[in-house]
Amino acid sequence: MGEIIYALGIGALLVATGITMNAVLWREEKRIRKEPPADEDGASGKRKDRV
Amino acid sequence: MTIFFWGVIISILVYLGVGLLAGRRVKDTSDYYICGRNAPTLLITGTLFASMLSVSGFTGDQGWCYSGNITSLVLLNAICACGYVFGALVFGRYLRRSECATMPEYFGIRFHDTRNRKVAGIITVISLTAYLLSCMTGVGILMEELTGLPGRACLLIAWVCFTGFTFYSGSRGVIITDTMMFLVFFTATLLSGTYIFNAQGGLGNLLENLMANPALPSGLLDYHGNLSGAGADSIPGSLAYSLTMGLVWFITVAVSPWQAGRNLMAKSEHVTFRAGSLAAIFTVIFLLYLNLQSVAVLNLKPSLEDPQRVLIWAALNVMPKLVGTLMLAGIMAAGLSSASTFLSVMGFSVVLDLFPRQIDSEEKRLRASRYAILGISVIVLALSFLGLGGIREVCYFASTIIAAAWAVPAIGSILSDKLSAAGARWAMIAGFLGFITARVLAEVDVLALGSVLKNFLDPFFIGLYLSLAFAILGSRLHPVTDAEASYRRKLLQLPRSEADPREYRRDRVYGYLMILAGVATSVILIFGWALPYNR
After folding, report:
1. Alpha carbon B271 to chain centroid distance?
2. Distance CA B144, CA B443 (A)
């Protein structure tokens, strides 16, 4: 029984990670479609802030 | 001079040649340090996986499998694998947005404090010098065994190889050769498996043969593995070991400069997601295939004197000479790829973070960078000749200590609006010193702490807990400034160049690939092992 739970667990780790990744990416995609980012460079162009 | 000797020498010459050729396309310091921020998914995947897998992945880890802990290692690797994706989602993509050349630079800019950059730079240099030394030692020992050349000659040959293309070509050379080396050991492993499995009656008969093997190590086929191999005296203890070590490596691949830092070179954020997914899949499936080869050798040679030599034994005794040579060249490649990454990350930190110089001309800046990396590498060679890489205490500073020190400031720099510059800096120092102190106490077994400081009290976690505590304390005493808050807000904004819905759709294909890989892995394990074993 332990072996079966283990085997399911190993696969579940990858499955859960894939689902989480896709959920995050899908949320980003929806947000972009609703309101595209206004700022030309977003967080880039930070060279001005170099310490 | 055997075929193995020539195989090692030829492979080294090929890596050196390709790496040096890559350097001819290096036009400026952006190319040199971060590959022009233009690396595609294949190269980022290749460098992630190759930098992670070193000689110990083919020796120490395989010895552990052979001795009864394949299930422990597969579980550890599966947890570790998830760190690639979570790391990209919660940290790596934001790190890339910073447009920094090194992770210490990121900490300096994110928290608007050069002291953070210096502290992170010092930790990088100490930790990766130690890791590089131990990696070089591993490669040198392997080369000595295969070629019969004296130890120092082997160190010198290995050094010439990875230093040659790293100092001349910088990151461009490193990630191209990393990917080449990844393809070498990937191909070698695929081929070697067919010979090893066939030699003991075929992959389909592996389980049956193991179950009938009187010399099978205790617990090898059980889900918890060999208890003593995991340093445990109970099943929960063994599982706790795999779980906690898996978490250690989950965090390590998510925030370490030789892993998360590779995202600085990615062509886009989407590359970080895709490369993370592929690295995760390879970590589980490819390594499972490799581990199965090690346990298959139990059916051919059940009493190897040194289990760490299991794949070397197989390369020399089971495979045709050409395939065996490729396998050994592949193991060497794993070590060289890690060494080149460590040298580049450590060397760049010395040049850019610890001793930055203002040079007007881009050409002069590039030349100065190359000479600096060469000089640093010569120092590392001298240290390796002194035998420092073989010293156990030096190895304490290698691999996971940097993650213990950086996990809180790295993840906190994105997720927390309360983590200040002081909090991040104190967290790094506390994590680093906490880890090393706990490690020494455990090794010396002061007050019998050796048996206490394990699992969630492992030195890694002691460092992590202290890091968190000092992050909170430092941030309370020296709160976030407007400049820090403003930078974090900008970092969280998605750049317009990344906002292409089609690219997100393509990214999700990689997510589905992970789901498919997970289902396939479970099916294979259930029908190939769990059900037949329990019949």
Report:
1. 19
2. 29
Which amino acid, residue B515? I
Enter the tokens of residue B139: 């490669």
Quick check: is B412 in a domain? no
Cα–Cα distance between B67 and B57 in angstroms, integer? 15
Other CB atoms closer than 10 Å to residue B448's CB: what's the count?
8
- pLDDT for A46: 42
ipTM value, please give it: 0.91
Q: Is residue B151 part of a domain?
A: yes
pLDDT at residue B162 greater than cutoff 60: yes
Whether B414 is in a domain gets the answer no
Interface residue B250 vs chain A (CB under 8 A)? no
Q: How many domains is chain B partitioned into structurally?
A: 1
pLDDT at B63 over 80: yes
DSSP 3-state of B39? strand
Domain CATH code at residue B207: 1.20.1730.10
pLDDT band at A49 (very low <50, low <70, confident <90, very high): very low
Q: Hey, what are B517's tokens?
A: 């890989």
Over residues A10-33, the pLDDT tens digits come to 999 999 999 999 999 999 999 998
Least confident of B3-7, B37-41, B195-199, B210-214: B3-7
Chain-chain contact of A37 with B493 (C-beta, under 8 angstroms): yes
The reply to whether B403 falls in a domain is: no
Q: Which residue shows structure tokens 């179950």?
A: B211
Residue B282 lies in domain: 3-392
Whether A17 and B79 lie within 8 Å, measured CB to CB: no
Nearest by CB to A43, from B86, B491, B505: name it: B491
Using the Cβ of B277 and the Cβ atoms of chain A, whether some distance falls under 8 Å is answered with yes
